[in-house]
Amino acid sequence: MGMVALNILTETFLNHLTTLLWAIYIITVLSTAAMIIHEKRDPAKTSTWVLLLITLPILGLLLYIVFGQNRRKEKLFSRKEIQDIEQIEYLSHKQVIRFSSKTDIHHKLADHLSIITLLLNNSKALLTEKNEVEIFQTGNQAFDSIIESLYSATSSIHIEFYIINDDKLGNRIKNILITKAKEGVKVRVLFDDVGSWSLPKRYVKELKDAGIEIYPFMEVRFPLLTSRVNYRNHRKVVVVDGKVGYLGGMNIADRYIEGTRRLGQWYDTMLKIEGEAVHSLQVIFLIDWYFVTGKIIRERNIYFPQPTVTSYHPLQIVTSGPDSDWASIMQAFFHAITRANKHIYISTPYFIPNESILTALKTAALSGIDVRIILPGKSDSTVVYWSSLSYVSELLEAGIKVYLYQNGFNHSKVMMIDGKLAMVGSANMDIRSFEDNFEVAAFIYDNQVTERLEENFLSNLVQSQVITPQSWSKRPLKNSYKEALARLISPLF
User: Fold this and answer.
1) Burial of 304 (C-beta count, 10 Å sphere; 0-12/13-18/19+)
2) What pLDDT is stored for residue 80 in this prediction?
3) Catalytic status, residue 193
4) DSSP character for 434?
5) HSE-up of 391 (CA within 13 Å, CB side)?
6) Residue 234 annotated among the catalytic residues of the structure
7) Phi-psi category of 105—alpha, beta or left, where left has phi over 0 and alpha has psi -120 to 50?
8) Active-site pick, 418, 430, 436, 446
């Protein structure tokens, strides 16, 4: 009799405990879903997270804790201690006044005053006018030039990359940096902790032992995992002696030189800049350096030498990231697209646009603008690849010409407008680059540079397969299901 009573009490207790746990669980899931909705995010991202929580609550909750929390509007770090920030804000305000009055404006800038003003307001991106710009389309070209600049360094080398690999190129760069440090050059290196996840401690130690300052950007270590894993430094920046700068889409990895077995040769775009704009790149590095290390670098005469370039190639170096109030690069993309008169050429490896960019592109095409987009014929990310293809149908319906690059993997991130305006940088045309990642891009207001980039783009079209409405409609049914599924879950990646 006692055993029966005990069993009844145990069963009753377990039933009550199960009910309690389910109640706690349901309340947690529902409150999380309510919080996601209250954050007023992009509707697609909101819907995806809520659907995941409902259909796969345990997995959805765990994924949201790690990847989904929106900290964009939180100030991830303070920049008030950096004197350059106040100076930049003052100079950007002066430039806004200058362009609003339209006095002393070079004729090359006449068609670009609105986007220049936009970037001055949302990113404090100073317009620099006296610059030289060189374009590299292959890893061999880009890194040959970077290595030459590193060898020529006499005072400082500042390097910031999303990925640094412990491979042939990575070790070649490492050995050069060690050599220059021994010569008395001040060398500082930043790498993203997630992007460079495989970088061994030995590699970092060798650099530190040589007197080089090297730090990971936002280390991912539990319990800080949840607040840091989703916001990555995707910038690729090199500044040598404050005189020569590089930016673009390449990382320090052999695949940019040798390609890979699965994808073949990697195609990308990198810029070498000399002139006034190098100071902007230097400021970007120093701000990121302060964020990571808490150290303020004050020797302006060393890190900001007087430029000697006299050529006139105006440009702005623009940043965006979760530390800023505005999605600066996305806004500039949108503005440029909506102001196009003749053509829009875009190359991007990952095409997952938000509704604003997608609508702008379709509206431009429907208005008679020649819109062409090159996407990879094969990609390093399966989910992103199929998600990118999920937009093809509606792009084609709007009259946008879509091409799939066939000669390897096209990792280039460029956009050219009307032969007058070009954008080159680290930012993909996807939601992650628009909202979550720290990115950098050059907005170039120069016919000569833009035309060179457009020539490269058109040569890539020859190596690309055009997608026609007829051929697209005949693709296997299973592909359309892959596209739909990838589109659904893409906001999570």
Assistant:
1) middle
2) 45
3) no
4) I
5) 26
6) yes
7) beta
8) 418
Please return the burial class of 380, using the count of CB atoms within 10 Å of its CB with bins 0-12, 13-18 and 19+: middle
* d(C-alpha 234, C-alpha 425), whole Å: 10
**413: annotated active-site residue:** yes
What is the model's pLDDT at position 68?
55
83-120+127-313 and 328-492, same CATH topology? yes
Q: Which member of 413, 436, 446, 482 is catalytic? A: 413
CATH fold of 328-492 reads: Endonuclease; Chain A (3.30.870)
Residue 325 is encoded by which pair of tokens? 């109030």
CATH of domain 83-120+127-313: 3.30.870.10
Active site residue: 45, 124, 234, 482, which one? 234
Helix axes 2-38, 43-55, angle to 10 degrees: 170
Select which of 112, 180, 186, 236 is catalytic: 236
The residue annotated as part of the active site, out of 112, 186, 362, 411, is 411
Query: What pLDDT does residue 223 have?
Result: 45
* 295 has catalytic annotation: no
What is the C-alpha to C-alpha distance for residues 128 and 84, in angstroms, rounded to an integer? 16
Whole-number pLDDT of residue 435? 85
The structure's pTM equals: 0.85
Domain boundaries, the chain: 2-68, 83-120+127-313, 328-492
Predicted pLDDT at 375:
98
**Contacts (Cβ under 8 Å, ≥6 apart) of 220:** 193, 194, 228, 229
Q: Which amino acid is at 413?
A: K
How far is it, in rounded angstroms, from Cα 49 to Cα 68? 8
Query: Which run of H or of E encompasses 449?
Result: helix 447-462
| Residue appearing with tokens 């989703």 | 230
- Tokens 């960019």 map to which residue? 357
Q: Which amino acid is at 456?
A: N
**Catalytic-residue membership of 38:** no
How high is the mean pLDDT in each 10-residue block of the chain (493 residues)? 64 71 64 55 59 61 57 50 63 77 79 95 94 97 98 98 98 98 98 94 98 92 54 95 98 97 95 97 94 86 91 96 89 98 98 96 98 96 94 97 97 97 97 91 97 97 96 94 86 62
Q: Which of 84, 192, 193, 241 is labelled catalytic?
A: 241
C-alpha torsion 14→17→23→27, nearest 10:
-140
227 within 8 A of 68, measured Cβ to Cβ: no
